[in-house]
Amino acid sequence: MIRFDQVTKTFEHEGTSFKAVDQVDLDIQKGEIFGVIGFSGAGKSTLVRLVNQLERPTSGQVKIDGQDMSRVSASELRNIRRDIGMIFQHFNLLETKTVYHNIAFPLTLAGTPKREVKKRVEEILEFVGLTDRANHYPDQLSGGQKQRVGIARALATSPSILLCDEATSALDPETTKSILKLLKKVRDEYNITVLIITHEMNVIKEICDRVAVMENGKVVEHGSIFDLFSQPKHPTTQKFVQTVMNDEIPESILKEVEARHIYRVTFRDGSASQPVLSNVAKHFNVEVNVLYGQITELQQTPFGNLIVELQGEDEEINNALQHLEKQVIIQEVKADGR
Ligand SMILES: Nc1ncnc2c1ncn2[C@@H]1O[C@H](COP(=O)(O)OP(=O)(O)OP(=O)(O)O)[C@@H](O)[C@H]1O
């Protein structure tokens, strides 16, 4: 659906050039919620702006449904842009227009007949749960309601792609959750491809199917959120995962890893809801001692990371490990904590 092929964007500033996006390759599938995470300045906004050609690549290609965006004519680009909705951190609503007219605006701009505009705006107002606010002005709304208007406006022209640029960064955690739930509903009911950029791993954890981690313009790691959360490889990914999953092993445990049998057990695909560890203790002659960790939820599926110690004869421990490997990811903890 959206393909980045060796995309580089270089900015020239006061005689020096700077690669904001550096040889990015990504393939985003139709109907998926794809997250791009990175610290400030990583190049996320530039990457997302390359999709609707608010920025043009210095080299490489951005393709939508196989069409190279830099080769389309100005009028084709206008049509393609109508098929790409965008929402922003600070909502970017027209303050002098009501909720109704903010949402109607892109339709009017596209020359949609008035009766159709009314039908579509009413439909979309109901979808975002703001029917009773149609005649309010943006300054009469909460942040969450403003973002709902932003989403409604972006959806008005029935796009097939929705770009979200830090769409929940100005919202409190509860409101963030409700907006993310709405974005999930957008994908589920309209099968829209959603590209989310954020610096918050919570957002990724809540709704994304896959994620790319950016640093200094490069994608340093990407994959399904289960893979990234269970086995983050790049140090930056590990830092982001640690912001929502406390998987950093305390010094007191690390000091003893050489002398003890300590393992990181990662539960995925629902195995966290099974009594995996107690079963192993029951069926093998080992004691399982949970030292540290937590279970949380990834896409409504229990997901967790526990640091456990196995005590017993070496042979029994090996048998228990072989059994555990069939159900969970199990890694011996090294002295460096990984
Ligand atoms: N038009 C521009 N001219 C010059 N440099 C730019 C321009 N746009 C972005 N940059 C630079 O490119 C880098 C990446 O910026 P970008 O906004 O894409 O990062 P980001 O990951 O979205 O960061 P943030 O979360 O802070 O917005 C930054 O160092 C920024 O200063």
TrEMBL record:
Signal peptide: none
SMART domains tied to this protein: AAA (SM00382), NIL (SM00930)
GO molecular function: ATP binding; ATP hydrolysis activity
GO cellular component, one term: plasma membrane
Pfam family, one: ABC_tran
CDD domains the record matches: ABC_MetN_methionine_transporter
Keyword annotations: Amino-acid transport, ATP-binding, Cell membrane, Membrane, Nucleotide-binding, Translocase, Transport
InterPro entries recorded: AAA+_ATPase, ABC_transporter-like_ATP-bd, ABC_transporter-like_CS, ACT-like_dom_sf, MetN_ABC, MetN_ABC_transporter-like, NIL_domain, P-loop_NTPase
Keyword Nucleotide-binding found: yes
GO terms classed as biological process: amino acid transport
Domain (ABC transporter) ranges: 2-241
Lineage: superkingdom: Bacteria
Family: Belongs to the ABC transporter superfamily.
UniProt-recorded name of the protein: D-methionine transport system ATP-binding protein
Organism: Piscibacillus halophilus
Phylogenetic placement of the source organism: Bacteria, Bacillati, Bacillota, Bacilli, Bacillales
